[in-house]
Amino acid sequence: MDAASKKPATKKAAKKTQVGFEESLWDAANKLRGSVESAEYKHIVLSLIFLKFISDKFEGRKKAIASEYGDEYIDMVDFYAMDNVFYLPEDARWSYIQINAKQGDIAVKIDTALHAVEKNNKSLAGALPDNYFSRLGLDASKLSALIDTINNIDTIANQNEKTEEDLVGRVYEYFLGKFAASEGKGGGEFYTPKSIVTLIADMIEPFEGKIYDPCCGSGGMFVQSLKFINSHNGNQKNVSIYGQEYTNTTYKLAKMNLAVRGISGNLGDVAGDTFFKDQHPDLKADYIMANPPFNQKQWRADNELVDDARWAGYPTPPTGNANYAWIMHMISKLSEHGTAGFVLANGSMSSNTSGEGDIRQKIIENDLVDCMIALPGQLFYTTQIPVCLWFISKDKRGNNEKGILKRRDRQGETLFIDAREMGSMVNRTLKELTNDDIAKITETYHLWRGEELATQSAELESAGKEQSANKEQEQEYADVAGYCKSATLSDIKANDYVLTPGRYVGAADIADDGIPFETKMSELSQTLYSQMNQADELDNAIRKNLQALGYGEERFAEKRDSEERND
């Protein structure tokens, strides 16, 4: 028992050290920013972290090749590619950058290194900044100091018994979040808060198949999907990743973010508009995770994409708001048994503007809406707009096939969850969902789908039918007033096809405190009369003070009488 109690404490201490390192690295790097804006500076810092990481991976592989095959093989690219390591020529290695860090032309040398990395590794084509450091005209001494700061990453990894891949991934994620916070409104273009991404991944459980994000930002959805798989002892090789990003600089961030974690993904040949330049026109994804731009206006002209195949069978999404264009795009990309989870502004649940209500009605009638979640406000760095999560399922039928998650038949049903009261404030303006919040929401959804029941049944089969039945009864889903409700299509129709959870879950039950009404009313009345008496006493005291100052009621009464006589 003593040994078991010591393990969590050790783990917790290590985590605390890790977070401290991320913060100290951010502080050190941020002090060096000078006149460079955060929107620009993130590409400087993250590019250098990326270069440091792939260089260290290269050096490790180089030593292994020399040891196993001999020095004559250390410059053969195929020996690096076979181990998913990028080959780096001499002038693209971190050691070369470190040696030349104090030179006046260090910015040129970094640009040359990044160009060489792209040239020698096709999978990184278009991923790295092009002549970025030279164009910014950075102070060489500040750039040198930043290089020295980033050079400490491997030292910290050794101290914390972490792989450098884990550590760099953590630093990368931390920096993306900090840059998003410091950039304010613009930060949301490349970053979705971690707690929201975690919730979506835990809800849809992307164990195997094709994962797609049509507006992938810096790739956070993909990273969290792989974390989910690894934390549940799954195999990362069982999933393939597809994505697209409109903004070129964010597209580069995404490619680097995946690369530092050893994740291979198809983000398209170039950055591009998902609606007009779909990089994956024939894709049918098993899982879709997305955070599209909120209420995107004028996303198409009146005569564009009117008869697009993606809205076949539905009214054409209006030009003034792209919310339903994103929904229809994702539905069109789902495989026969696919599931999608995505973030949208709350207005998407109830809007009837320009035919949006008709589209929503058709989606509901086609029984595609699996779950709706109303989230608390203040979750985003970029906006205070309240948001919700949509979960779309192409197949709500029960599934009992071997090797596939067992789920009950949910046809004609939709789960509504009101999570607006959840979350904790992390600072004055920002809130995040806690691990307990995420676990509660996820468990509710999985119980409703019948997954936990099936799992418990299998595990308890050997323990006897009676014990298994009791356990299953404890694990059954149940509506909770003010929190969750399993509604039918008829219920939704009766609410004019509005999907706002608050309409369905009702008000939370008020706990009975056991005090009789008469007793409670008597106490409240006594308190009220006491407060009224105190108010009278205060009024009299104020009148006396005004009287003493020459502003008594008599003075104003005389003035009022005089004005009335003149009238």
From TrEMBL:
- As recorded in UniProt, its EC number(s) are 2.1.1.72
Q: What is this enzyme's catalytic activity, as reactions?
A: a 2'-deoxyadenosine in DNA + S-adenosyl-L-methionine = an N(6)-methyl-2'-deoxyadenosine in DNA + S-adenosyl-L-homocysteine + H(+)
Q: Name one GO biological process term.
A: methylation
Q: Which UniProt keywords are present, listed alphabetically?
A: Methyltransferase, Restriction system, S-adenosyl-L-methionine, Transferase
Give all residue intervals belonging to the DNA methylase adenine-specific domain: 164-512
| GO MF term set | methyltransferase activity
Per UniProt, the enzyme's principal EC class comes to transferase
Which stretches make up the N6 adenine-specific DNA methyltransferase N-terminal domain? 22-150
InterPro entries listed in its UniProt record:
D12N6_MeTrfase_N, DNA_methylase_A-5, SAM-dependent_MTases_sf, T1MK-like_N_sf, Type-I_RE_MTase_Subunit
The family classification in the record reads:
Belongs to the N(4)/N(6)-methyltransferase family.
Quote the protein name from its UniProt record: site-specific DNA-methyltransferase (adenine-specific)
Organism equals: Pseudoalteromonas rhizosphaerae
